[in-house]
Structures are given as C-alpha cells and as structure tokens.
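Handoff note, outgoing to incoming analyst
You'll be picking up this chain. Sequence as last confirmed:
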Amino acid sequence: MAQVISRRLAFAIACLLLPGCLTAGETGTRRALLLGIDDYDAVHAPSCPEPPPGEERCRCEWRDLVGSVNDANAMRDLLTAQYGFRPENVKVLTDREATRDKILAAIRSQLIVPARPGDELFFFYAGHGSQIYNSLSDEPDKLDETIVPADARHGAADIRDKELRRLFDEILDRKARLTVILDSCHSGSAGRGYPSGGRARRLPQDCRDVADRPTTGPPPEQRGALILSASQDDQLALESWDETTKAHHGAFTLALLEAMGREGPQAPADEIFLRAKARMQTMSSPQEPVLAGARQSEPLFGSRARYGGETGRTRGGSAVAVTQVDSAGNVYLQGGWASGLGEGSELEELAPAKNSSPLRLQVTAVQGPVHSEARILGPARVGGALPKTGDLFRLVRWTVASKRALRVWIPETRERWEALRGRAVAFRDAVRTAGQVWVTDPVAETPTHVLSWEHESWKLLDSAGRTIDLGAAPAPATLVNSLASKRRPARLFVHLPATQDLAKDIHLGRGTDNDALEKSAGPEGADYYLVGRLNGQTPEFAWVRPAAGIGSSPPTSLPARTDWLPLPPTDGAAALGGALEDTALRLAKIRAWLTLDSPPGEEFPYHLALLDSAQRKVAPARPLPAGATYGLTLEAPPKQLGRPVTSRYVYVFAINSTGASILLFPPASRGSVENRIPPSSEGGHPPAEILLGSQPSFRIAEPFGTDTYFLLTTEEAVPDPWVLQYPGVRSRGPRGKTPLEELLSQRGSTRRGSPPPPLPVTWSLEKLLFESTPPRSGT
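Most recent structure output, in case you need it:
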C-alpha cells in the first residue's frame, strides 16, 4: 500500500511539472465527477417472466458489468496526467458507492456548489442505461432515458435525463463550462445482423410512472455544454477487451481514452471524437458514438490559449514525465498506451545535464493508458545519476503495439454431419409449421431469435439479450414454445456449429502456422464467428461479424460476412476447412491495416481528398456511384503552411471490403519517383493544394461497399512500393529493406514471429472512408 501511495504522489508531482499541466491563474478550477458501476447485485436478481399480451417487458432482469470501474479509474489517471486536473479535484464513485443519493449529492457538492465563472467541470458515467415510464412526458413513447445507480435493484429510482438536465442547468447558470461523457445505452436494441456476444450496458425499462412534466428551455448542449454519448439511440453500448492491459472497458471509453491520449489536451473535441470513432470502426462493437454541443471546435476542457500554444508538444507527441525510479533502476513513466507508447518504444531526455549526452530510455512494459515502465539504455549520466521525478522525455523511436491479428469463435459439436443436418431440418419444419419465420442469412435479415450451440448445449438468444438453455437435444416443439414473441411472428436463425473434424481442419491459433490469429472460447470479444446455416438440404458456413448487417453503422471496410461456403460432397471437412482458413486470413489482413496507427503526435500538414470530374472536393459522407471517375489531391490549411514544411514521400492506396489493396499513387511500376511532397521550391510558401498524378486517377467498380483510402507519408522512401499493392495473404517472408518497409510488408502476416524493430517517428498514416454503390437497376 505504501508503494502505491508513493507512486500516486510522484505521479501528481510529475503532472505539476509537465508543461501541459495548468499553473495557478491560467484558467478556472477543473473538477470532475467520475462514476463507474459494475456491481448491480445481479447474482440475486430474479428471472424475467413473459409479459402479458400487449404489454411491454418491465425490468426484472439484472446483469453485472465488468468494465465500468476500469473506465472511471483510467479516465481519472488520464485527466490528472495530461489534462490539468489536480487529483484532489477528481472524485470517483464506483460500484456500491454510486447509489442514487450519493450520486446526486456528489453532483451538487463536487460540481454545482463550488462552480465559478470559467471553471471547467466534467461529468463521466459508465454503467447501465435504461428508460422509465413518464405519463406526463412530451415524448411520443412516454419514456425518459436514465442512468442506473448501484442500488436500483433494491428499489432506488433511476436518475432520469430530465433530473440531470436540471442539475447541469445549475452549473451553466453559474457560467462554468461543462463536458459530459456517457458510456451507457438507453433505448438501443440488439441492432442489425447476428447478435453480438459482448456485454451491453442496458437494462430493460422501469415501468413505474414518474409523472414528471417536461422541462422547458433549451437543453444543456444548446447552452454551451459538450456532450459525448457512446451510441445512437437505436444501438447498444457494448463492453470490449483491452489487449494491452488485459482488462475490460466500455468500447467507447477505450477508443476515447486512446484518442484523448494521442491527440492531447490542445486538440479540438471534434478531432478527438473522430479519432475515437475511427478506432471503433475496427472493433467488433457495432455502435456509432454521438457528439453534441457548440464547442466541438474547441478542446474538451478549455481553450487552446490556456495551454500556452504548443507548449509541451514535441516531435512525436507530448513530453512524458518520470514519476518514480526504484532502487533497481526501473523508471516509471507518466505515459502509456493512450500516449501511443508500446513495448520497445525509445525516449530521449529533453533537458540533459550540462556536458552530458541525453539519457535514453526503452519501454519494457505498458501498464495502462498513462502508466508504463522503462529501462535506461544509455549513455549513462555523468557520475551515474539516475533520472528523477519530473524529468521530461520525448519519443524518438516508436514500436507498433503487439496485438492479435483477428479473434474468431468456432463453436463445435460432437455430432456427425447427418445427425446435425437432420436436427436442423426438424427445427426448420417445426418453426415454419408454427407460423414463425426461418431466417437463412442473419446479415441480410436481422433475426429476433438465434439458436446456437455453446458449451455442449443449445442456447436461444432473443433481441433483448435474454438466453434460454434448451439442453443438448431439445425437441422441435420445445424450441417453438420458447420463441417468446406472441404478438408477432418470431424470426429465427439456427446457427449450426462445426463438427469436430471441420474445426480441426481450420488451422488458426496457437500451435499452427497462423498463430497471429486467436481462437476465442466463446462469442464475447470475438471479431468474427464461424456461422453455419441450413440452405435447402446443405450445410453452409461463413465468417460473420457480430451485430453487422446490410447498411449497418458505423461503416467499415471489415465485411459483415464472407461468402457462404457449402460442405463439399466428398472430403468435406478438409476442403471446407482450408477454404474457411483462407478467408479468415483475408479478414485478418484487412483488420491489420485498419488498426495500424502512425506515431503519436506526428502529423503531416496535407490531408487526402477525392476530386470528382468537375474538380470538386468529395465529402466522405457522399457515396461514390459505379462508373464515376475521381482524382486525388492533397490539401493543407493555410495556417499550417505559415511555418516550414518538411517534404515527404507520399503514397496513396485503397483497401476494399474483400481485402484487395490497390496502389493509387505513385504507380507501383514507377517506384518512389515524383512523389516527394511538397516539391522543393525557392522562396514562397508551399501550395495549399497539390494534385497527385494524372486526373482522373481511378474509376469506381466492383466490389461495392465501404472502401478505405490510406495516405502514407514518410521522410524515407519505401524502396519497394509493391508492399502496398495487395499481394494476397502470405507468410512473413524475407525481411524488408528498411524498418518501415518491413512493418508495411508484415501487415496481415499470419505468424507472430519477432516484432519489427523500433521505427523512426517521421511518418504518418491517414485513413478516409467512402461508400461505393452499384449501378441502379435498369441502367
């Protein structure tokens, strides 16, 4: 305990010494209230009976969460490390501390009562969201959205959005600035496509009538508050797994923490939000977050001027401070994965002692969003002096975080093919006879119920997230009687498991040549499920992304599913297993590129844009129709061209939803020729717009869907640009000519092997998503 207190004290001292932290008089006081609730006493919760016909299901089921407390604690660490919040001004309530009365009292004592003009106040909630009936509401559904306190199962009322609005209005009346982040969901349902196995932060509605009249006046976001929510109203907010710290978090909070750490306290809120949103597009979570409020172009907490311009920023990102050095010479740093640090990253001392070379550190372990451990590389200081608390270091060599390429779930059964086929046919015939709908593609038609094989038993999952265990060999009549909806036909999809022979012939995971991919023990945390279906009399299989359907959001180049592959009549398991293995490797390659980040803080002033045939810039929200032609251009804000710009080699390539990669600029046959941007010129400023190659550069054709365009810039040329042209899925192969080229050639490698060496921080990667659409019928 003493060591933990010492580390926290050193952490706070280091924050005060960092250029990015606030000093007295720079701005108003910063205070935060952070709530994280996992424990809802769900172990003792009753089961949910079927509601009477015509009535909505009311709350009687309870589910504990596993990532909300982690969210609150990680947010506290980031606020005190990088965002100028003093530890004594950050209050955290977790689990049973976060009762209704204590939450309301804390909002008043921590945020409202001490609020003064110019103060920066922050309210964060991670936990279940829900709804409650309000007969006097002006909303058509008569439901108020709520956050669920820890004592709600014991009768305490939820805290409604209207109650929070009145409290937030008191803060704004005092001329303080308010930022609100909610990682919960309210009215979201199971979403489109095959249901996700992740924990959803949602409980069924409370049917008690609060009979509260509407609140008048503009909502807080129209009065200056900035509000970030984890998902749209019709989506679930899910929990996710942090591969670095091996801990659960809310999917939105995990992405937001990384964006806040990488962008830094000076970045506008909309840039942080867009980075977080882009990160979520590569996760198995299908939700799309929401940003509301007029302060989107300003930093989350305070204006840019209050941070002293670019003070505290260095090439490669923010300065990292030493918090402690132990007797063994291990150096503890105020920076972790949120700052882009990974094992093997190297940092150099910013202000070395007189007549001494800068001390160099190498990160040996990343312990959270703002904590890491390092060792001294050398050269040693004069006299062997160790770093001390508050010493600042900058990132000079960067490593890509070691993450799995893809996690898949492959449910399997001991049953043979004929027995499995016969059971599926019996299920289908009984469902259709009972007037229910048999779904053959959960991506094209979202089911209300899914029957799947898990842990030696058939489980029936409904759209509310309830699971019924039907046992190892349920009768068809038992299945039909368990379809809960009596008011409308149920839409059932039966997910056939793989036989043990088929599962054995899919060579993925530990002990195989494809050990960069992982097999999950269950659906939770998997990027794709191996899903079987009965099509006619033939079993077919495909990799399906959970909760992703046709037209689902957020858009991503990760396909909702692969092609359905039938079981061949002869040598079925081996042939089908090889084909499924190949498609899984293609999915891993797409995900590897989509999750690759450039070094923290390293930005090129130019950004990629597409031009239509009239030379007009195309917004990413606009679909690209089949047959249209487009050109490539780079644009830079004039304010970023007022200072010297170092030329870089520029490469543009695109990955479509099938995993194919096409190098658009420069042509692969020409190598790195005439692609150094901006071109050298004597005198004057670099141009604000630079056309790339011949115009137009490419035509929209099949396959249609979401395409991701990449802008890669680097101060060192890529000797072989063919590494950016889709070469097919392959093993690691020979080492690249440079560390950067080796990294690029490894994207989508199926082997873990040794990580690439540390990279220079003088390169960047920008991603731009566009939807391409097929021709209209009849044209």
